[in-house]
Design brief:
heterotrimer; A mainly alpha (311); B alpha+beta (95); C mainly alpha (251); A: 311 residues; mainly alpha; two-stranded antiparallel sheet; 13 helices; 68% helix; B: 95 residues; alpha+beta; Ubiquitin-like (UB roll)
Chain lengths: 311, 95, 251
């Protein structure tokens, strides 16, 4: 088939909501765009394990400990599903990990913030996972088949994460005065970074329009952010906590909440490497990868030896 | 170092007896035995399966989407292969 | 089994599972490859799950209103009854797997014994746990063999890991007064059978892994009597800090 015919076939599949599968012809830019988005998403899952794993050893009850451990383990699984989806585009997981470890690849900047008290674990599950789910539900209809299937699996598994977080917030917000204070402190620190998770405003988002046209992204950054804010406010009110945004108010005309300006300067500073924990996160990932090299190598050597013995 | 990377396996899981194995995703493992255990640990954490198959990804032979026309379209108009092609009077009942 | 005996047994079983589970959980997010990060966390989750059952039962038998969390978070180190093996540091992946194997090789035959005791509550926890632990032993044995017989580097690391962990392994199979008492009063429980099964796994796996089994001249370890190594204080300081700092709080 001629290039132009292939392009027409591809466009018509996108138009008719027919998923693109790994062996199908696709424009190089579409492949690259998907690879970038899926691998960033995968990196975010595994870097995202770190701030939460920080509290596993200190979880205040055994029930909380197993729930948190299972949740952080899920993030490893989600990273794995996403790397697998990205690998169908012709780049190996190891190559992607190299890009992450060298600092070349990006991941969600939210994970460069520290978890400072136990309520942070509640706030992360509730707000960070909540924001991620809002985004991921939309991505279940993304145009690249393996990515959409990974998202369906991730969404199914994540349904307990947000509830786990909110339950912690409830026990803190309705607990002793010290606990309530921890809950408020955590909310103050996580609210704005959670809103930044949806990415820059649509007008500033470099890849957004093309991604929407290709149906890699299904809903724009600003629309998702608004949806998340509208959903979260009654949840905050139920807890009796206050959001750190004096401009927040219901807008009858729009049918949405209005909110104050986001500090995009902070967002870009954190993304470009100057957040509170960027260095720690990358060091931890590099250490795990490098310390594991001899293990991976030995397992491979052993498998090869056994193969030879059998043959 | 690349040759030391663990190969990719495709994972198929039977969710309960009576159903066929279904592709659920892939993972890396050093050998097939480890791939089975990894599949158990990664893909069966929520009671998803009663049986697992793993297959090295490079052992799968796949059709070429470019051949779709000649492979699949010829079947489209062979409607005489479907029961609705044949007319049987109502009084005969279900057949 | 007398209430005192089952209380003591539950603490031992629960503390082994809790402290080792806590140690394994330190790996979460730091494993050598995603698949194995997930696999080890599964084992940690199994163990902490088992510890909840054992400690809950211990609290119930004691009848003083202590639940799993009271027992986990409000006892001091001299009240913990686990083997000192369980509290040893993770080291590298090979050390962790070596410690795991030496524990699993003891844990499985012990649970198999407990499945058959008359005390129904003890037997039922053992019956649930034994299925999990059978997989643990399979998994850790395979890893010890894989690394022992993998590359020269991995072989050397595993031989060293064995030397490091071995001094703590003896406690698992050297009966103390309580083990002998149980063997006498609670048949079919038999501490010698656990000992025998442990040696058989150890010899078989180390043979396949090309690892030399060190001499069995173990230094005395008394974790089961509450005399632990210096490691435990730090584990507890971390694990127990929140409930102890805010004793009135519900989490």
């Amino acid at each position: 088939m001629e290039q132009a015919d292939l392009q027409r076939l591809f466009d018509s599949k996108i138009e008719q909501e027919i998923r693109i599968e790994p062996k199908d012809w696709m424009p190089e830019a579409y492949r690259k765009n998907n690879l970038r988005q899926i691998s960033q998403h995968a990196h975010s899952e595994i870097v995202g394990m770190l701030p939460e794993a920080n509290w596993i050893s200190r979880a205040p009850s055994l029930r909380r400990k197993v729930a948190l451990l299972a949740k952080v383990q899920d993030e490893a699984g989600h990273g794995l599903y996403l790397y697998s989806a990205a690998e169908t585009l012709g780049t190996s997981r190891d190559e992607m990990l190299e890009d992450l470890n060298s600092g070349k690849a990006k991941y969600s900047s939210i994970f460069n913030y520290p978890t400072l008290n136990w309520a942070d674990i509640g706030a992360v599950g509730w707000l960070v996972d909540g924001a991620a789910i809002t985004n991921q539900v939309a991505l279940c209809r993304t145009s690249y088949g393996p990515y959409a299937r990974a998202m369906v699996r991730v969404c199914k598994e994540e349904s307990f994460h947000q509830r786990q977080g909110y339950e912690i917030m409830m026990s803190m917000a309705f607990g002793t005065p010290e606990q309530k204070q921890m809950a408020q402190d955590a909310l103050n620190r996580w609210w704005w970074p959670a809103l930044m998770m949806f990415g820059p405003n649509d007008s500033e988002s470099p890849h957004s329009q093309q991604s929407l046209n290709w149906k890699i992204k299904r809903v724009s950054n600003d629309d998702l952010r608004q949806e998340f804010i509208d959903k979260s406010i009654p949840q905050v009110e139920y807890l009796g906590l206050t959001l750190p945004d004096p401009d927040l108010k219901w807008n009858e005309e729009r049918g949405h909440y209005d909110f104050g300006p986001i500090d995009w300067e902070e967002f870009y500073r954190v993304i470009s490497g100057n957040g509170p924990c960027n260095k720690d996160r990358l060091e931890a990932r590099n250490k795990a990868h490098n310390d594991g090299a001899w293990v991976r190598e030995a397992a491979m050597a052993f498998a090869e030896k056994r193969q030879t013995n059998v043959a | 170092m690349n040759s030391k990377n663990w190969p990719l396996f495709e994972v198929f899981i039977r969710s309960k007896n009576g159903l066929s194995h279904k592709h659920v995703g892939s993972l890396h493992a050093a050998d097939p035995a480890m791939a089975l255990e990894n599949a158990r640990d990664v893909y069966c954490r929520r009671n998803e399966g009663v049986s697992i198959w793993v297959v090295p990804s490079d052992h799968i032979t796949a059709s070429d989407p470019g051949d779709a026309e000649e492979l699949y379209e010829p079947a489209r108009d062979k409607i005489y292969r479907h029961p609705t092609f044949y007319t049987i009077p109502d009084e005969i009942g279900h057949m | 089994m007398s209430p005192n005996q089952s209380f003591e047994l539950c603490l031992r079983m629960g503390d082994n599972a809790l402290i080792l589970g806590q140690r394994l959980a330190e790996w979460c997010g730091h494993g050598p490859i995603l698949e194995q990060d997930i696999a080890l966390t599964n084992i940690s989750l199994d163990l902490i799950g088992q510890s909840r059952l054992w400690l809950s039962l211990a609290g119930q038998i004691e009848g003083q209103g202590r639940d799993e969390d009271k027992l986990a978070f409000f006892r001091d180190s001299n009240e913990f009854r686990h083997l000192n093996l369980c509290e040893q540091p993770n080291g590298h992946w090979g050390t962790t797997l070596m410690r795991q194997f030496l524990f699993d090789a003891f844990h499985l035959p012990l649970l198999e014994q407990l499945c058959k005791v008359e005390d129904q509550q003890v037997a039922s926890i053992a019956q649930k746990s034994v299925k999990e632990v059978r997989y643990h032993l399979r998994w850790s044995s395979e890893w010890v063999v894989r690394l022992g017989a993998g590359t020269d580097e991995s072989h050397e690391k595993m031989q060293q890991a064995l030397l490091d962990v071995w001094p703590f392994a003896g406690e698992a199979i050297q009966p103390n007064a309580f083990d002998l008492e149980l063997t006498e009063t609670c048949p079919p429980y038999n501490v010698q059978a656990v000992n025998k099964a442990w040696w058989s796994s150890v010899n078989e796996v180390f043979n396949q892994a090309n690892l030399d089994v060190p001499e069995a001249n173990w230094a005395p370890q008394k974790g089961r009597e509450g005399i632990h190594t210096e490691r435990l204080g730090f584990i507890l300081a971390e694990m127990q800090f929140l409930p102890r700092a805010y004793p009135d709080a519900q989490w």
